[in-house]
Design goal:
The protein is of the alpha/beta class. It has one domain: 3-Layer(aba) Sandwich (Uracil-DNA Glycosylase, subunit E), CATH 3.40.470.10. It has 8 helices and 6 strands, in the order ααββααβαβαββαα. It is globular. A 6-stranded mixed beta sheet has the order 1-3-2-4-6-5, with helices on both faces.
C-alpha cells in the first residue's frame, strides 16, 4: 500500500493522473476532443478534477462530479457552468466566496473557510456515475478529507454526496451509521469522516444542477438557508 500523501498538492498530483474507470476516462477525453461549439477554441482539461478551496476550512461542501463542459473543461470544480453560477453566487452572499461567479481556473476566486470536493472526479455520461465508479473514486475523497485537518462541518450537494459522507464516516468509525434519509434541509450527526472519532454535522441540500434550479425545486432562498446554517455551525458566518 502506498503511504498516505502529506499534502493536498501531492494528493492532487496523483489524482489528476488517475485512469481507474475506463468508461469515465473514455467519456471525459472524448468530450475534451469534440468540445462544445461555444468552447471550440479552448483547450479542455479532460482529466480528473481536484477539490478546491481553503485548506484550513472547517466547512466542506461535497457535490457529485465535474460537468462535461464545466469542470471537465476548466479544471476546477463547479467552474464555467450554470451550476457553479448558482453555487458561487450563494457562497458570495454568505461571505465565503470572494466573487459571485467562477469562469476560469485562474479567475482569482478564493474561498474563506470552505472547501469544495466530490465523490467522483471525472465527468460521467449523463451526470450519472455507476456505483462501481463511485466506489473506485472513494479513496480520493477519503484522502482529501484526511488532509483537511480543521474540517468539522459538511454540506452535501445532492444525495450522492450525502451518501458518500455517511459511508466514509461509517468506514472510519468501523460501524454502520444510522443517518436520516437524504432530503433538502436534513441535518445528520455522524462520526467524524476524517478519523471516526467524535461527531460532526452533515447538512443536506438538493444539488445545484439546472434540473433543480430551473424547475424551482431548489430556489436561491432554499439554498441560502442551508448554506447559512452550515456556515454558522462551522463558525464561518459573515461577521
Amino acid at each position: 500500500m502506498s503511504p498516505a500523501p502529506r499534502s493536498l498538492k501531492v494528493l492532487h498530483a496523483a489524482l489528476v493522473e488517475c485512469r481507474r474507470c475506463p468508461r469515465l476516462v473514455e467519456w471525459r477525453e472524448r468530450v475534451a476532443r469534440e468540445k462544445r461549439r461555444a468552447y471550440r477554441d479552448e483547450t479542455y482539461w479532460g482529466r480528473p478534477v481536484p477539490g478546491f478551496g481553503d485548506p484550513a476550512a472547517p466547512l466542506v461542501l461535497v457535490g457529485l462530479a465535474p460537468a462535461a463542459h464545466g469542470g471537465n473543461r476548466t479544471g476546477r470544480t463547479f467552474t464555467g457552468d450554470r451550476s457553479g453560477d448558482f453555487l458561487y453566487a450563494a457562497l458570495y452572499r454568505a461571505g465565503i466566496a470572494s466573487q459571485p461567479e467562477s469562469r476560469r481556473r485562474d479567475d482569482g476566486l478564493t474561498l474563506r473557510g470552505a472547501y469544495i470536493t466530490g465523490p467522483v472526479r471525472c465527468a460521467p455520461p449523463e451526470n450519472k456515475p455507476t456505483p462501481a465508479e463511485i466506489e473506485a473514486c472513494r479513496s480520493w475523497l477519503e484522502g482529501e478529507l484526511a488532509l483537511l485537518r480543521n474540517a468539522r462541518v459538511y454540506m452535501a450537494l445532492g444525495k450522492t454526496g450525502y451518501e458518500a459522507v455517511v459511508r466514509i464516516s461509517g468506514a472510519r468509525a468501523g460501524t454502520k451509521v444510522k443517518a436520516p434519509a437524504f432530503g433538502h434541509g436534513v441535518v445528520a450527526t455522524l462520526p467524524d469522516p476524517r478519523t471516526g472519532r467524535g461527531e460532526v454535522k452533515l447538512f443536506a441540500s438538493y444539488h445545484v444542477s439546472q434540473q433543480n434550479t430551473q424547475t424551482g425545486r431548489l430556489t436561491a432562498a432554499m439554498f441560502d438557508a442551508v448554506v447559512e446554517a452550515a456556515a454558522r455551525e462551522a463558525g464561518v458566518s459573515r461577521a
